[in-house]
Write a structure and sequence with these properties.
- 36% of the residues lie in helices and 27% in strands.
- The protein is α/β, with parallel strands linked by helices.
- The chain has two domains: 115 residues, NAD(P)-binding Rossmann-like Domain (Rossmann fold, 3-Layer(aba) Sandwich), CATH 3.40.50; 95 residues, Alpha-Beta Plaits (2-Layer Sandwich), CATH 3.30.70.
- The longest helix is centred in the middle third of the chain and has 14 residues.
- Bound molecules: adenosine-5'-triphosphate (ATP).
- Adenosine-5'-triphosphate binds next to helix 1 and strand 2.
- This is Trk system potassium uptake protein TrkA.
- Pfam families: TrkA_C, TrkA_N.
Length: 218
């Protein structure tokens, strides 16, 4: 059975989620209070509805509790975002993801039961900053305040050494979870795998250990 999604708020963020879900063949209901925005998604979404989601009766009439995953992508109107999220959880929606505009908004969304809170501007800013600080870091995903997964490029210095030779886990406290080599990806590489210069190492660990690894080993 295909999952059914509903996206509330069709700005740049909600709109792009809606487009991507539809592209992946998912059932998506697109909802916005603004009719013009709704019309833009009429051809993309399975249903496009003009509605104010802060009205509980409206949410009930949309049968919102039957959706597997509802995304609240209302940003500027923080009150509407909070009210909508609260009612979705009260109505028993299994999974609610919500976009936070700032740290306070994020805190409230978590408190009222949002299952997943995203903070796209902040998170993208952090990722870009990481990429700018080190030429070797291609991408980075924050797992917690202190742990991340990073994609780093293996230097000439690392090339020709096996994972066990480099003793990365003991020396730097991080693990190589995969190696991207051209179009191939080696998941959970063996300890005797030889690293080649230019390989993209996907490493997991504490931020401080990943930073030290970037500075010292690469
Ligand atoms: P983005 O930053 O994603 O581009 P935006 O700045 O265009 O978003 P936001 O204020 O973040 O707009 O809101 C996103 C959408 O949410 C808007 O299209 C807005 O009409 C819609 N929206 C706001 N309040 C409600 C509501 N109560 N019910 C339904 N949709 C709403």
């Amino acid at each position: 059975m295909k999952k059914e999604f509903a996206v509330i708020g069709l700005g740049r963020f909600g709109g792009s989620i809606c487009n991507e879900l539809a592209e992946q063949g998912m059932q998506v209901m697109a909802i916005d209070i603004n009719e013009e925005r709704v019309n833009k998604f009429a051809a993309v979404a399975s249903h496009a509805v003009c509605a104010d989601t802060t009205d509980e009766k409206v949410l009930k009439s949309l049968g919102i509790r039957n959706f597997d995953h509802v995304i609240v992508a209302i940003g500027d109107d923080i009150q509407a975002s909070i009210l909508t999220t609260l009612m979705l959880k009260e109505l028993g929606v299994k999974k609610v993801s919500a976009k936070a505009q700032n740290d306070y908004h994020e805190k409230v969304l978590r408190k009222i039961g949002a299952d997943h809170v995203v903070h796209p501007e902040r998170d993208m800013g952090k990722r870009i900053a990481h990429n700018m600080v080190s030429n070797n870091v291609l991408d980075y995903l924050e797992l917690s305040d202190e742990h991340s997964i990073a994609e780093v490029v293996a230097s000439e210095k690392l090339g020709g050494n096996s994972i066990i030779d480099l003793n990365i886990r003991a020396r730097h406290g991080i693990n190589i979870v995969a190696i991207k080599r051209g179009n191939d990806i080696l998941v959970s590489p063996q300890a005797d795998e030889l690293i080649r210069a230019g390989d993209i190492l996907i490493v997991i660990g504490a931020d401080s250990d990943i930073n030290r690894f970037e500075r010292k080993a690469l």
